[in-house]
């Protein structure tokens, strides 16, 4: 993507803010969407342009916000109105785990740690070639269930964070091999929730970038961007939240339906929490009213949405 597009966008947005008008409204709306499309083309384009574009949105603040909101609802409406959703397969989580599963995880982690190398989420750090597919499914089940149990504790210390992150690195590699990479990006969302509730803000931001890079490698960048939307909405950063939400929506709309029902529900769920968290209640109501009748939520989810 030509960096000049971002520079021109910034100039027009700044001109409107300073002069209190909407002289470039049509150009800015089209430019916003074009910039998003250019950015999602690959990770390098995103890294090259994201900081400057987000800086423009933040600097122009109140003036740029309506543009970001317009894009969000344009994209979310397009997605929701397709009505073409498929259930997300969670059957991998019904595996029975036992002492052998724990032994397998322990031996894999110890072998990797003995090499003294830094474990990176985006890389294959472990030798799990000796494990059967069933062993891998049991490992994934145990890690995800353990994460849910640990998440019942709202405040984590550094040891809990480091131990969980190490297991999440193994989880991604395992699920990628099993062809279930999307499940990893849903699971790590809970980890981000606990990083924020425990005030590990910088760790969350740094990890979010690694997750985006991983999601490109796994060919599902919409899930990497969604997790950044998740953490910035929890922090209450309005412009960063909408920026990453719009990147996520732009990414998934480049694919053909059916779309994952779980992803749709996550966008709605996190969007509602975000708009309420930053006191944008009219937009929370607008998103709520867009929920299609055929999209089912658990009772506790529905109660949270209704209130």
Structure summarized in a few sentences:
The protein is mostly helical and 307 residues long.
Instruction: Estimate the helix proportion, in percent.
Output: over 70%
Spatial shape: globular
Order of strands, main sheet, comes to: 1-2
Number of strands: 2
Structure classification: mainly alpha
Order of helices and strands: HHHEHHHHHHHEHHH
Mean pLDDT: 94
Helix count from the secondary structure assignment: 13
> What about the largest sheet?
2 strands, parallel
Give an account of the 3D structure.
- α1 (3-19) crosses α3 and α6 (158-177) runs antiparallel to α7 (181-197).
- The longest helix is centred in the N-terminal third of the chain and has 40 residues, at 43-82.
- Helices cover 73% and strands 1% of the residues.
- The chain is built from 13 helices and 2 strands.
- With 307 residues, the chain is mostly helical.
Chart the SSEs and their pairings.
Layout: H1 3-19, H2 25-39, H3 43-82, E1 85-86, H4 99-113, H5 133-150, H6 158-177, H7 181-197, H8 201-217, H9 221-235, H10 238-252, E2 259-260, H11 261-277, H12 281-289, H13 299-306
Parallel strand pairs: 1-2
Helix pairs in contact: 1-2, 1-3, 2-3, 2-10, 3-10, 4-5, 5-6, 6-7, 7-8, 7-9, 8-9, 9-10, 9-11, 11-12
Give descriptors for this structure.
307 residues; mainly alpha; two-stranded parallel ribbon; 13 helices; single chain; 2 strands
């Amino acid at each position: 993507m030509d960096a000049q597009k971002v520079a021109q966008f910034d100039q027009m947005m700044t001109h409107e803010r300073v002069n209190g008008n909407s002289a470039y409204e049509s150009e800015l709306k089209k430019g916003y969407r074009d910039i998003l499309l250019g950015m999602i083309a690959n990770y390098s384009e995103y890294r090259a342009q994201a900081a400057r574009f987000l800086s423009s949105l933040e600097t122009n603040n109140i003036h740029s916000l309506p543009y970001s909101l317009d894009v969000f609802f344009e994209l979310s409406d397009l997605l929701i109105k397709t009505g073409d959703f498929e259930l997300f397969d969670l059957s991998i989580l019904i595996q029975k785990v036992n002492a052998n599963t724990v032994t397998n995880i322990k031996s894999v982690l110890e072998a990797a740690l003995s090499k003294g190398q830094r474990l990176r989420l985006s890389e294959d750090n472990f030798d799990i070639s000796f494990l059967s597919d069933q062993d891998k499914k049991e490992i994934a089940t145990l890690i995800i269930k353990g994460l849910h149990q640990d998440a019942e504790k709202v405040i984590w210390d550094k040891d809990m964070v480091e131990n969980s992150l190490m297991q999440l690195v193994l989880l991604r590699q395992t699920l990628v091999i099993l062809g279930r990479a999307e499940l990893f990006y849903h699971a790590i969302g809970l980890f981000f929730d606990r990083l924020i509730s425990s005030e590990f803000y910088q760790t969350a931001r740094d990890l979010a970038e690694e997750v985006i890079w991983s999601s490109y490698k796994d060919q599902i960048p919409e899930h990497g961007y969604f997790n950044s939307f998740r953490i910035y909405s929890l922090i209450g950063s309005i412009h960063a939240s909408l920026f990453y939400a719009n990147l996520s929506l732009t990414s998934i709309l480049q694919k053909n339906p059916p779309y994952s029902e779980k992803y749709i529900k996550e966008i709605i769920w996190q969007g509602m929490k975000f708009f309420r968290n930053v006191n944008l209640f009219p937009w929370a109501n607008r998103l709520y009213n867009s929920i299609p009748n055929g999209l089912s939520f658990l009772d506790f989810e529905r109660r949270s949405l209704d209130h």
